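Quick note —
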Amino acid sequence: QVQLVESGGGLAQPGGSLRLSCAASGGDFEMYVMGWYRQSPGNERELVASITSGNYTRYADSVKGRFTISRDAAKNTVHLQMNSLKSEDTAVYYCNAFSLANYWGQGTQVTVSS
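Predicted structure written out below.
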C-alpha cells in the first residue's frame, strides 16, 4: 500500500509561484509513474503533469512552459514547481502514483487570486 502526502499549497497572486511536494512511502518508488492532477469545482479531475522513473515528463497544454515536475528518488519525493500562476490554476491538486494500481494523496488547495 502506497501512502502519498502532499504539501506546499496555499495562496499566490497572479504571476506568482508555488512549489508542491509529495512524499511517497510504502512502496517501491521506482516502480511508479508519479503525477499531479487537479480538480476545480464543477470540473473533472485532470492531469497536470507526470514523470516516469526515467524522468520522461508529460504536461497538460495549459501548463506547458509554466510548470515543472521533478522527482527525487533518494527522498521518494515528487515536486511540482508552478510559475506564472493564473487564476485558472486555482484547484485542489492531487499527487498520484500509478503502477498496477492507482494511489492518491489527500489533496492540497492552490488558490491564485489578487
